[in-house]
Design a protein that fits this description.
Order of helices and strands: EEHE
Distance between the termini: 27 Å
Strand content: 35-45%
Helix content: 10-25%
């Protein structure tokens, strides 16, 4: 299992999405599913970027800093 951190750009605003998945392909699919669950009406997504990926062993995590973005 891997822990993924994605940066999704919607209306030029970066949004961070954290996913646990077995593969990169599954992780990208789960990003779409989580966005659909979060928004009442699915917004137009400008970009989805894989920002970080970590193996889950005895634990894993990410620090989400307000100023940190890949844009």
């Amino acid at each position: 299992m891997n822990l993924y951190r994605f940066e999704v750009t919607i209306n030029e605003e970066p949004i961070h999405v954290i996913i646990v998945a077995d593969s990169d392909e599954q992780a990208f699919q789960l990003v779409d599913i989580e966005l659909e669950k979060h928004y009442l009406k699915m917004p137009a997504v400008d970009d989805i970027s894989l920002y970080e990926k970590k193996k889950i062993k005895n634990g894993a995590g990410f620090v989400l800093a307000e100023f940190e973005t890949i844009l």
